[in-house]
Design brief:
Number of helices: 4
Bound molecules: coenzyme A
Number of strands: 5
Shape: globular
Low-confidence stretches: none
Radius of gyration: 15 Å
Strand content: 15-25%
Distance between the termini: 33 Å
CATH topology: Aminopeptidase
Order of helices and strands: EHHEEEHEH
Structural class: alpha+beta
CATH architecture: 3-Layer(aba) Sandwich
Helix content: 25-40%
Length: 145
């Protein structure tokens, strides 16, 4: 897998990947989420593409991680690997690249949010060295999509 920043032409494939991975929600318009991310640290919106040269699907997005540093914490959203390619350590590679870029910006700690009910990914993050913070996540919507 080759990891590179998101390009506008990835949009439809990336939205399809997120849908396939069950990451989209009715209250989050994924295309608006992408458009907003392209205005802030777009170089931290990572896409993993199949680097097979001849294989069908070569060059297609197969994984994503949308990272950002707010000056205090790094955040990573939309961590996704195509279901057909899960278990090949692609998610770990993508998170390692996000960590490398965030560390380079002086980011001291990464936070991730796991939706209630998505318990099956807990093992993945714990495997990568993440542990529970003991904090309760609260949010307040400012712009309705
Ligand atoms: C979570 C997800 C990104 C993991 O990607 P992946 O490429 O399948 O995971 P990897 O193969 O890189 O796994 C890395 C390591 O974690 C381990 N691991 C992965 N999932 C695990 C789990 N549920 N429990 C325990 N260990 C797990 C792997 O065995 C691997 O171990 P290794 O380093 O010894 O080989 C992928 O399953 C996914 O896209 N899920 C759906 C979307 C989602 O829920 N995203 C998270 C939103 S918070």
């Amino acid at each position: 897998m080759l990891i590179r920043p998101f390009l506008e032409e990835d949009t439809e494939a990336v939205v399809a990947l997120w849908e396939e991975c069950g990451l989209t929600r009715p209250w989050n318009d994924p295309r608006r989420d992408i458009a907003r991310k392209l205005t802030v640290q777009r170089e931290l919106f990572l896409v993993g593409v199949d680097d097979g040269t001849e294989a069908a699907g070569a060059g297609q997005p197969i994984a994503t991680a949308m990272a950002g540093f707010d000056g205090h914490r790094g955040w990573v959203y939309y961590v996704a690997v195509s279901p057909a390619r899960q278990g090949e350590r692609l998610g770990a590679q993508l998170m390692a690249e996000a960590e490398r870029l965030l560390t380079g910006l002086g980011c001291p700690k990464i936070n991730i949010q796991i939706r209630s009910g998505n318990d099956r990914v807990i093992g993945f993050y714990e495997h990568l060295g993440f542990s529970p913070d003991g904090a309760l996540g609260y949010g307040k919507r400012l712009i309705a999509d």
